[in-house]
Design goal:
single chain, about 300 residues, Arc Repressor Mutant, subunit A, two-stranded antiparallel sheet
Length: about 300
């Protein structure tokens, strides 16, 4: 058997893109070279790794078994090259981070800034999406580490509590509830609500917190972006449940008001996610330790 690193690179590229043409573009080689390399790998290992669905190549069970091993071998090979290139005392390479929207927009930029100030040779790519998107990208090995504000139910992903976050129900400065000293469950039932889309961690936590507390909500809008929700609430279109981390500036300026609702527990965890079968590079391990040590406030 004479399997090569190039064949593994081709397999991983096809697995991630699901398409020979896009894999060729990523690797900067011809489509025929991709097809030949993949065919040779399948011949050497005696297995087919993809099922054809139209023009797409979809990994089968054998492909899903190979992908973590192939990604791990390539990562270890890159570390060996770094070690013997005279750069073993520095952290180099690309770290692909996925984060759900609150974490990605309001925490990660500051963490990245501090991390790259200490490790200038490290490169970081950030993918921001909702919790469901981040989990799926981790399962596909498109990211190295994930951070979510919702819950993960995938057994192949290790879920590590990272830090606490407080949610609060927010209204615009001119909203009638902003002037009330106390807010009741009936006040919330009568209000117009603006919520995140299904699949959002904030939405999932919020709905769990309301179970048994409020009979029903009048949902006026569902938006897929926290900034859009903040703008809509400020404009008086409704009220919403948002992270205090995301609304800090708006609250300080007086544009948004966080209501006191002691009858609802709106505290949650942020979680760090790792694929159990993924090889952890030195760069990934150092970044994880850095995030664990980070003391950035959420207020």
């Amino acid at each position: 058997m004479s399997m090569t690193f190039r064949q593994l690179e081709v397999f991983v590229a096809v697995a991630k893109t699901g398409n020979v043409t896009r894999a060729a573009e990523v690797l900067r080689i011809s489509q025929s070279a991709v097809s030949m390399s993949l065919a040779e790998l399948e011949r050497l290992l005696g297995e087919k790794f993809f099922d054809r669905r139209g023009k797409r190549l979809v990994m089968n069970d054998q492909g899903r078994a190979l992908i973590p091993k192939a990604v791990g071998v390539l990562a270890q090979a890159a570390e060996i090259e770094t070690f013997f290139s005279g750069r073993n005392d520095r952290l180099t390479g690309l770290l692909r981070v996925g984060a759900s929207s609150t974490i990605g927009n309001y925490l990660m930029p500051r963490i990245f800034g501090d991390f790259t100030a200490s490790y200038a040779d490290a490169r970081i790519a950030l993918d921001v999406g909702n919790t469901e998107h981040i989990v799926q990208e981790l399962l596909r090995f498109n990211i190295d580490i994930g951070f979510i504000e919702g819950l993960c139910h995938q057994p192949t992903i290790e879920t590590i509590p990272w830090r606490r976050d407080d949610l609060a129900i927010h209204v615009g400065a001119e909203h009638p509830l902003a002037q009330q000293k106390s807010v009741t469950a009936d006040d919330l039932c009568q209000a117009r609500w603006i919520l995140r889309e299904q699949g959002s961690g904030t939405r999932e936590i919020f709905e769990a917190a309301l179970a048994g507390k409020l009979d029903s909500l009048r949902v006026a809008l569902e938006l897929g972006n926290t900034e859009a929700i903040k703008e809509a609430v400020e404009a008086g279109l409704g009220i919403s449940c948002l992270s205090l981390l995301a609304t800090r500036r708006a609250r300080l300026s007086g544009a948004l008001v966080a209501l006191k609702t002691p009858f609802i527990d709106l505290q949650r965890n942020f979680y760090l996610l790792l694929h159990r079968e993924k090889y952890q590079t030195r760069l990934l391990r150092r970044f994880m330790a850095f995030c664990e040590e980070s003391t950035l406030g959420v207020r």
